[in-house]
Amino acid sequence: MSSIFNGPYTAISSAGAFGPQWLEQLVWQLLFVDGELAHYRVTLTSEDRHWRIVRPAPDTPIAAVRRLEHEFSLAPRLMPQWAVPPVALLSGSEGTLLVLEDASGMLLHDQPDAPLSIKAFLQRAIAAAAAVTGAHEAGLLHRDIKPCNLIEDANGGVRLSGFGLSVDEQLAPQLPVSDVTCGSLGYMAPEQSQQLQRRTDQRSDLYALGMTFYEWLAGRLPFEAADAVEWVYCHVARIPPPLSQRRGDIPAPLAGLVHRLIAKNPEDRYQSAAALHRDLSEMHQQWQQFRDIPDLQPDLPDGRHDASAVSPSPDPKPVAGLESLSSASTSTTLAGRDALDLSSVMKSAHAMRDESEQDRLIETLLRNTIIHAGAQRALLLLVKDEAPVICAIGQGGVDGLGIELTDRVPDKQHLPLSILYRVMRTRQRLVLDDVCTDAYFGADEYVRQHPVRSALCVPLVKQGRVLGVLYLENNLAPGVFTVCRTEVLELLASQAAIALETARLQQELEQENARRRDVEIALRGARARLAEVAQSTVMGELAASIAHEINQPLASMVSNAAAGIRWLNRDNPEVDEALSALRDIVAEGRRAGEIVNALHSLARQGPHHRRRLLVNDVIRHVVALTGVEVEQQRVLMTTHLTCSPLRVCASSVQLQQVVLNLILNALDAMSAGDHVLRRLSITSEVVGRDYVVVSVEDSGRGIEPENINQLFNAFFTTKDKGMGMGLAICQSIISAHGGHLYAMPARYGGATLVFTLPILE
Ligand code: ADP
């Protein structure tokens, strides 16, 4: 290795020996890279002396350089018994270098033999605990304990390095909260992530040491995460998988010790490195003696030695949906809360953009919210018809974080109803640090069943209306949900609410569209069927009408022909009579033809050949035609026709049809029964100046009141051989001429059929 630095370096330490010439003679060996800092072992071959040098990568943010300066400033307090002391800080044109003593030992992060044997672990752990004890006794919080900052020296001792984030224990409580999110993500104590609004203290270092121990024993960290937000979530809310599950040969008290170190709540951890050192030494002794570690005498009255108190059981899988894992061991100084908040909000925004399915969207949003908040359990409720309904439940469990979409009425099994109702009523968020001990909410039935520590309940309000409620809880530690963080949660939650509302509207719209499509299809079908039916009805009606209307002239022709034959068959044939019968036949035949034409145009609804005509002429003509039948039925037929020359514009054939029908119906009505006097009266008169009114009145059996509204319906008939088409056709003809056709009781107990027609000027 050759020197990679050019240009003059000024030693800014007291060590004048580390000048440019010194640098030029060094042989460099890269040990590892920790984030922006590269660690080298350098050798001055001429003197066979070694140092370690930490050098920031090119374009490193100034904060990393500050960390080196800070570490160097601590040099007088870093004792070689427990620390690797810096010996010089060099500054040159290519950056700053921190020169450290070389402990000529191993870095404890890249051991090929990991996981360690129990014996090797105990020896190393004792040495590490001693080093941390040394730092704490010197009044320093290291704040970045991890394997690569623990260096085993030639004598088997462990020394701490990487003091760039360390602070004086006395100063720590005065640091602003936003300054304490630091350390390496995989090892960072919950309180160090400043998710919890608690100060870091020595117990935060013990947490990081516990994570290191876990890694040494299990070969890997208890958690895996994709980014800073998820790491924080893991430390705050996820229960580490029991060591015993990762490795079968770990004595329970040792596993208990490690789990106690990584308890979420600082109060549940070892309270000092010295106490830890003591227990480890005792375990080591037992191990030497028995190759086993029987239970230690618990030194706490509540027996918090027991690992099961903090690690319920099975082995959770990593949080679902992680592709790339972010580096767990790189030192980080997150730019305070805002960086995490922004990251969560961005994630949710991406979800809103990318997830088109409502269910997936709710899942993603709830997952983000849980991870962001450091919750163990979350419920998303929506208000439907004024009542809350649980629509999603998120729960950190043994298999990682599970989200269940549901549709349930909340009850005391699901969440503290007292909290839910309070939030719905007041529309104010509720942040509870330790629900179990809360005088009011502590009495809630749910809380009595489930020991809730931290709880947060946020109303999702849109335009003054409570759309839903988000409920979060964490039973591992009190004070997880701090008031200052709820704003981002509210933002996330309202994103969820808006997404849900939008999705609901979208769904309704789709349903509505689907309904409309169905209706349209049904309507089209109905129309098609209607058209078919109408077509066949028209055809049927037409056929029936033709039969009905043609029957009458045919009957008349047959009887005339029979009469003609009789006249001619006589011994003295009555040729004149026969001729007259033949003429009638011709007339009837013509009429039948005309009727067919008229019906044809009626069916087509086309224009009829209309002309100005005298209504009375039409009546007279039909009366003449029916004279024979009237006589045969012994009916007294009278006509009272107005003397004014009433002209209408009409088809004479159609009007004849109408009058004929009415007369024939009247004769039919009088045919049954033994009426003393059968009367048929036909009148025409003018009403006002506009209408001519023609009535055909008989003394028949009359019309049953229940039938009066059906007379004009096609196929309505009360006769055995009737077709029920006559009046229907009459009505359609009269309407086509701008008039009306009615039926009413007659003066002599029979029926009167009346039609009107507009008079021509
Ligand atoms: P059809 O004569 O083939 O029955 P219509 O349409 O001409 O068909 O008449 C329908 C029904 O109206 C008749 O069956 C009958 O019951 C009733 N009707 C029509 N005219 C009279 C009338 N003058 N007196 C009593 N009932 C009548």
From TrEMBL:
CDD domains listed in its UniProt record: HisKA, STKc_PknB_like
Domain Histidine kinase: from-to ranges: 545-761
TM annotation in the entry: none
Enzyme class label: transferase
Record keywords, A-Z: ATP-binding, Coiled coil, Kinase, Nucleotide-binding, Phosphoprotein, Transferase, Two-component regulatory system
Coiled coil: 502-529
Reactions that this protein is recorded to catalyse: ATP + protein L-histidine = ADP + protein N-phospho-L-histidine
GO terms assigned for molecular function: ATP binding; phosphorelay sensor kinase activity
Domain of life according to the entry: Bacteria
Protein name per the record: histidine kinase
Lineage, top ranks: Bacteria, Pseudomonadati, Pseudomonadota, Gammaproteobacteria, Pseudomonadales
